């Protein structure tokens, strides 16, 4: 039996737009819902999503909410709260920890209040161009995010240098930087650059340049391999070094 695709109803209000979702959230349905939510987030910036009658076919499908929020820019320009007193989406989001990025509220009144404060974890994801102009693009993206999130100058300056070096390394040694992901939570700011090469980097012995600069400025760092490449990430803590 074919799964029922989700249906969407949009209601415009003075303080936020409401998207009411019903039916089963399949793989294809998640892709369609991503497009709908992204459109309304970019258009209005403040979005409530009623998921009380939405049934995910797997836990993986609920990542659509965090993904679309991050790709729309995240706090403070794109704000989204899921509305439901309970249900499968709410339970999965809480168990997986996705409610740290996309807050949950039991009703519309509570959701409107929750829109006015940032989530516990803010994420911003941007596809990057290939070529020599990618590092400059990334530096500007990082400055804008740090300003939006009201981070101290010291942390912003470190983040700009780290992002520039990670992107420059990807441009020089791989098929090019594919994606920048900035994540802010209680631990600090995480700067990650994904590229299309599976080759893992080797850190230089000295801190003078390249990834040695990244190692010197970071509080933690690592590489996450993927089937189609890898992500190099760096954690920069909020406290002064």
UniProtKB/TrEMBL annotation:
<dbReference type="InterPro" id="IPR036513">
    <property type="entry name" value="STAS_dom_sf"/>
</dbReference>
<dbReference type="GO" id="GO:0005524">
    <property type="term" value="F:ATP binding"/>
</dbReference>
<protein>
    <submittedName>
        <fullName>ATP-binding region ATPase domain protein</fullName>
    </submittedName>
</protein>
<dbReference type="InterPro" id="IPR036890">
    <property type="entry name" value="HATPase_C_sf"/>
</dbReference>
<dbReference type="InterPro" id="IPR050267">
    <property type="entry name" value="Anti-sigma-factor_SerPK"/>
</dbReference>
<keyword id="KW-0547">Nucleotide-binding</keyword>
<keyword id="KW-0067">ATP-binding</keyword>
């Amino acid at each position: 039996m074919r799964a029922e695709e989700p249906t969407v109803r949009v209601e415009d209000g003075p303080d936020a737009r409401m998207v009411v979702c019903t039916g089963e959230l399949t793989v294809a349905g998640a892709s369609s819902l991503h497009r709908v939510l992204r459109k309304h987030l970019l258009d209005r910036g403040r979005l409530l999503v009623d998921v009380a009658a939405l049934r995910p076919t797997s836990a993986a499908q609920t990542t659509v909410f965090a993904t679309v929020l991050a790709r729309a820019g995240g706090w403070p320009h794109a704000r989204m709260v899921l509305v439901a007193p309970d249900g499968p989406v709410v339970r999965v989001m809480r168990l997986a920890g996705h409610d740290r990025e996309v807050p949950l509220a039991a009703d519309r009144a509570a959701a409107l209040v929750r829109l006015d404060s940032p989530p516990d974890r803010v994420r911003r994801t941007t596809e990057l161009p290939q070529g020599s102009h990618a590092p400059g693009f990334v530096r500007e993206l990082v400055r804008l995010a740090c300003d939006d999130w009201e981070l101290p100058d010291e942390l912003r300056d470190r983040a700009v240098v780290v992002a520039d070096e990670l992107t420059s390394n990807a441009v020089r040694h791989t098929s090019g930087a594919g994606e920048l992901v900035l994540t802010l939570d209680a631990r600090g700011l995480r700067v990650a650059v994904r590229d299309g090469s599976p080759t893992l980097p080797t850190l230089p012995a000295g801190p003078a340049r390249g990834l040695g600069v990244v190692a010197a400025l970071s509080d933690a760092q690592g590489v996450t391999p993927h089937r189609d490449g890898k992500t190099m990430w760096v954690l920069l803590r909020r406290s002064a070094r």
